[in-house]
């Protein structure tokens, strides 16, 4: 049965040299494909190693910067200054439970609003920002009254 299949078509005229040539082409093709795949994988590995090394350097730099920063006092202790300053300028303080659009970072934050006359709110906000680490947000002014959002940040 195998001999009958080999005698059909152009294959019946092939000699040993033809079969050797086909085998050589097959072997060389497999070898080249395999070598190219190895080179591609090595390049990928090299790129991944470079990316990982860069990430490690970036994280080390970030860690060094964080280690150099001052440690902030706890937020609870920072917050007690806010009502005292606000009272001095006749401004109301409201604590916000919903922090939409407020500070969203790695530090602990308490969010609030200052309400009162425009000048008083702005002066109180300036003094609060000079006294405790604070982010100030949008101010809404209407008929001489102002509302200013803020976030006091600190450690746990």
List keywords for this structure.
156 residues; 5 helices; single chain; 22% strand; alpha+beta; 4 strands
Chain-wise SSE layout:
Elements lengths: L1 H5 L9 H53 L6 H5 L1 H8 L3 E5 L11 E10 H14 L2 E9 L2 E10 L2
Antiparallel strand pairs: 1-2, 2-4, 3-4
Helix pairs in contact: 4-5
Report on this structure.
The chain has 156 residues and is of the alpha+beta class. It folds into two domains: 9-68; 75-154, Gyrase A, domain 2 (2-Layer Sandwich). It is 54% helix and 22% strand. It has five helices and four strands, in the order ααααββαββ. The longest helix is centred in the first third of the chain and has 53 residues, at 16-68.
Concise synopsis of the structure shown:
This protein has 156 residues and is α+β, with helices and mostly antiparallel strands.
Provide mean pLDDT, rounded: 83
Q: Tell me roughly what share of residues is in helical segments.
A: 40-55%
**Main CATH class of the largest domain:** Alpha Beta
The CATH topology of the largest domain is given as Gyrase A, domain 2
Number of helical stretches of at least 4 residues: 5
Which structural category do the helix and sheet elements fall into? alpha+beta
| SSE pattern, N- to C-terminal | HHHHEEHEE
Strands, total number: 4
In total, the number of domains comes to: 2
User: What would CATH call the architecture of the largest domain?
Assistant: 2-Layer Sandwich
Radius of gyration: 37 Å
Query: pLDDT below 50 for ≥5 consecutive residues: which ranges?
Result: none
Largest sheet: 4 strands, antiparallel
Major sheet strand order: 1-2-4-3
Strand content: 15-25%
Shape: rod-shaped
Distance between the termini: 84 Å
């Amino acid at each position: 049965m195998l001999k009958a299949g080999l005698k059909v078509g152009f294959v019946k005229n092939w000699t040993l040299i033809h079969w050797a040539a086909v085998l050589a082409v097959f072997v060389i093709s497999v070898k080249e494909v395999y070598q190219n795949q190895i080179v591609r994988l090595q390049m990928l590995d090299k790129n991944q190693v470079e990316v990982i090394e860069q990430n490690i350097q970036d994280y080390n730099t970030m860690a060094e910067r964080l280690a150099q920063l001052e440690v902030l006092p706890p937020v609870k202790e920072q917050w007690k200054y806010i009502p005292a300053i606000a009272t001095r300028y006749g401004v109301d303080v409201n604590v916000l439970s919903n922090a939409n659009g407020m500070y969203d970072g790695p530090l602990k934050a308490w969010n609030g609003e200052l309400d009162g006359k425009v000048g008083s709110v702005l002066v109180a906000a300036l003094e609060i920002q000079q006294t405790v680490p604070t982010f100030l947000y949008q101010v809404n002014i209407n008929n001489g009254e102002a509302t200013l959002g803020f976030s006091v940040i600190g450690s746990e």
